[in-house]
Write a structure and sequence with these properties.
Order of helices and strands: HHH
Shape: globular
Number of domains: 1
Number of strands: 0
Largest sheet: none
Structural class: mainly alpha
Distance between the termini: 33 Å
Strand content: under 5%
Helix content: over 70%
Length: about 80
């Protein structure tokens, strides 16, 4: 995937993860985007390790994996940053 696709998938995944796991976050939009991009990477790595495939383009499966990774990272970010959920 190109960098623009990663950014788009990250934005979408981060926004959906924020909707699934609402709460106050320090950092706002930029942190949400970065968590979404990192979530796509982490989700793709975990998914590949488990044999489900990875994030390989802009499609529903990749978006789902990226969202799951972003929700996981958002949870961990809140847990370790000390923000209240």
């Amino acid at each position: 995937m190109g960098i623009l696709t990663w950014i788009i998938v990250g934005l979408i995944a981060g926004a959906i993860a924020k909707a699934i796991h609402p709460g106050k976050d320090p950092g706002g939009f930029i942190v949400t985007m970065l968590i979404g991009i990192a979530g796509a990477i982490v989700g793709g790595f975990i998914s590949s390790a488990l044999g489900f495939g990875g994030v390989d383009g802009f499609n529903i499966g990749s978006l789902f994996i990226a969202i799951l990774g972003a929700v996981l990272l958002l949870f961990l970010y809140r847990k370790f940053s000390g923000s209240k959920t």
